[in-house]
Write a structure and sequence with these properties.
The chain has 735 residues and is an alpha+beta fold. Helix content is 51%, strand content 15%. The chain has 29 helices and 21 strands.
Length: 735
């Protein structure tokens, strides 16, 4: 009974918050989402010991209170962890709440794959999040609310996890918040992350700020006094206050200037908010401030006429205050202030159709489109680099000869500007004129520069350009150009070889070529085709060399394929027979195929098919080096294949095991296997030499998780130095 009353009280509290802050509220929708999420998370607790549902509930309150969103966003906040942490799937959310809510919840759901590297899944989760955001920007705002609550309760997370979460917050989420103009969110995330990453420095700065508060308050009051007199005389209605800098901001100043806290004097900024809708009044007030205190002309920033990319507008001026201290003064209207504090979220206050990204929101999402313009062509490392690179906080403003404005990160070069104008301008640039003076492509630009790019049709990118460039757009275009050129060269080399094969009426497939690459001083098909393209390998001579060797060993290979011998060969054949072959794009129909000997795929391995000439489909492991080379040369011949999914079927797996031999070792090994889920052992082949043993054990397993648990158990046996799945140790074994 008490629990039911408590739940109703929490729901009523959330509904009241929504009615206070949202234009319209669909109470039935929020009630339904509240009950659905509460039931889905029932019985689950957080690390703090509190019910897990407290988290989505708190995230919904953040959305309703701190972002002026809508009732759909509140419902999505309540549901945002249901798919990730409970038995429900996106299709269930769609059935209950419709496509819009399902799509937003899906966008906020992280990709989880325990079999892959954390950085890979992290990058893919960011990619998914941002691409979802382009369609519906509420996805990102719910993630901000989610991260805010996570950071507010980080003390309840296991200590070893806190630094990783804090670093991700500082590297990704705080810059994201800046990019969306969410100043309050950015500051809170930065300070919370700073607290866990550098606790000693954080505590020291907080302590010193408290100790100097009385002195700072007195100084601010003295500084504001003459400004109030002049503003009142001019008839302005306004608010004026001293805003203390945040601990993380002060910490960065101390590091950048290499000075202690006591020598950092700009610990606060003065903010003047005018009750005016006329932007020109900001400049009038700037004149009043400049008459009261001497301004530093080099530190004047006009973000009113030229807003930041995140929509931020304000006038910034730095003046010399009492005792010669440099004080920053910010001047803005209420609308500018709302955008400065709430950024893109402030747009909801005036927007009717909030699901779609319209022209007014375009500047908030265009950088995402730039980021993923060539996202499928970059490595995980490059993608993570681009995430951080694209989230730059400091910007410069440069102009074309016609006066068009281009916004670039601090440190951008003329080559970045060239690609910002157009990719073709970038590809053919040979230099630039900055303020009328000819400069090189690696020249760093400054705010206010006027830049003209010099081009030549004969110019093409060189390898140094990627190091010179700083923006993701420039780097990705340069990478794409070199990849396209390499692809053309590989295609040309392959075509040359195929033409000569047809003329000589010789049949060779890629597997034949791979076996004899060392004859030409190369180790990969890529290098082989590139050398043919460059003329460093003669196609006719290569064909003759390979063909002679293939003809010489053909009978032996055929005999081996017809009657494979040996313990491991029998295992591979049995494992494949149990699955019934492979399926093509989900079809169970039979088709001509064979298994590549270079990587020897077995059930449980991710696989890819390659349509070979005359041999049907060659099945490779997805991570096989040769198939990756083949994908570069002719991706049109790559085909999707898989092992058939047969419910309840066990498949054969081989475990390679090694270690120090002792009495009873074999008994310990077999006992460890057979006592785990009644695992069936179907073969053992172990050799011993010099008190060491090495060999293979064949078992029937239900799935990959079953096999992983077996290998973990084996590694714990005294004297066992290694135990791993045969497919993972195959290359080492064959060498």
């Amino acid at each position: 009974m008490k629990s039911g009353v408590y739940k109703r009280q929490k729901l009523d509290e959330l509904l009241e918050l929504c009615k206070t802050n949202l234009r319209t509220v669909n109470e039935d929708l929020i009630r339904h989402a509240y009950e659905f999420s509460s039931n889905a998370h029932d019985g689950v607790v957080r690390d703090s010991g509190e019910p897990y549902f407290d988290h989505p509930y708190s995230v919904a309150k953040v959305v309703a209170q701190e972002f002026p969103l809508d009732d759909v966003s509140v419902a999505c906040a309540l549901l945002h962890d249901v798919v990730e942490d409970t038995k429900y799937e996106i299709k269930d959310i769609k059935a209950e709440f419709g496509a819009t809510i399902a799509n937003i919840v899906d966008g906020t759901t992280k990709i989880t794959d325990v079999t892959r590297d954390h950085q890979v899944t992290q990058a893919e989760s960011y990619r998914k999040l941002l691409l979802s955001m382009v369609t519906d920007i509420r996805v990102m705002l719910i993630k901000f609310a989610d991260r805010l609550h996570n950071m507010r309760t980080l003390e309840h997370v296991k200590q070893e996890k806190r630094p990783r979460i804090a670093k991700e917050t500082l590297d990704i989420y705080a810059p994201f918040a800046h990019r969306f103009g969410l100043a309050k969110v950015k500051w809170e995330l930065e300070d919370a992350a700073f607290k866990y990453l550098h606790p000693t420095e954080y505590e020291e700065i907080v302590r010193k700020l408290k100790a100097t508060k009385k002195e700072l308050d007195a100084y601010i009051k003295e500084f504001i006094k003459p400004l109030k007199v002049r503003l009142d005389e001019a008839g302005f209605t306004y608010e004026i206050e001293g805003r203390p800098k945040h601990p993380y901001s002060i910490y960065n100043k101390m590091r950048a200037r290499e000075k202690p806290f006591e020598e950092i004097y700009d610990l606060f900024a003065i903010r003047i908010i005018l009750e005016s809708e006329n932007d020109n009044d900001c400049f009038l007030v700037y004149g009043i401030v400049s008459s009261a205190y001497t301004p530093n002309s080099e530190r004047f920033k006009n973000y009113v006429s030229v807003p930041k990319k995140n929509g931020y507008q304000s006038l910034h001026t730095t003046v010399v205050g009492p005792d010669g201290r440099m004080i920053e003064v910010q001047i803005r209207t209420p609308e500018m202030h709302e955008i400065a504090e709430k950024g893109v979220a402030a747009h909801w206050k005036y927007k009717e159709n909030i699901a779609q990204v319209d022209e007014e929101l375009e500047h908030w999402v265009q950088w995402v489109r730039d980021l993923f313009e060539h996202g499928d062509q970059v490595s995980v490392e490059q993608l993570m680099e681009s995430f951080k690179l694209t989230l730059y906080q400091d910007e410069i403003y440069v102009f074309t000869p016609k006066g068009d404005l281009k916004t670039l990160p601090v440190g951008a070069t003329t080559i970045d500007f060239a690609f910002a104008v157009h990719s073709n301008v970038g590809f053919h640039c040979i230099g630039a004129k900055v303020n009328g003076k000819i400069v090189t492509l690696d020249t760093t630009l400054q705010s206010g520069d006027q830049v003209e790019i010099l081009t030549s049709k004969k110019q093409t990118p060189n390898m140094d350009w990627e190091q010179i460039a700083t923006t993701h757009k420039a780097k990705s275009h340069i990478r794409r150009w070199f990849k396209d050129e390499e692809r053309k060269a590989l295609s040309d080399g392959r075509e040359q070889l195929e033409k000569r094969l047809k003329k000589q009426k010789v049949h060779l497939n890629e597997e034949d070529i791979v076996k004899y690459l060392s004859s030409f001083g190369v180790t990969t098909l890529r290098d082989f085709y590139l050398k043919i393209h460059k003329g460093e390998i003669d196609a006719d001579s290569a064909i003759n060399t390979i063909h002679l060797q293939v003809k010489h060993i053909q009978p032996e290979e055929k005999k081996e394929e017809e009657a494979p011998a040996g313990f491991i060969d029998r295992f591979i054949q049995t494992a494949r027979k149990v699955t019934g072959g492979i399926s093509l794009r989900g079809s169970q129909d039979s088709f001509l195929h064979s298994y590549a000997k270079c990587c020897n795929p077995i059930p449980g391995d991710p696989i890819i098919g390659f349509v070979s000439q005359g041999d049907g489909i060659k099945v490779h492991r997805a991570n096989c080096k040769n198939i990756q080379e083949l994908m570069l040369t002719d991706k049109n011949r790559i085909i999707e294949v898989s092992w058939p999914q047969i419910e309840g079927t066990e498949f054969s797996a081989a475990i390679r095991i090694a270690g120090e031999d002792r009495t009873g070792m074999l008994n310990d090994i077999t006992h460890s296997i057979s006592t785990y889920q009644n695992t069936n052992i179907r073969g053992v082949n172990i050799d011993t030499q010099d008190r060491l043993f090495e060999g293979y054990i064949l078992v029937y397993v239900k799935d990959k998780e079953h096999l992983n648990r077996l290998t973990e158990r084996l590694r714990k046996i005294k004297g066992v130095s290694s135990a791993e799945r045969y497919s993972e140790s195959l290359k080492k074994h064959e060498k």
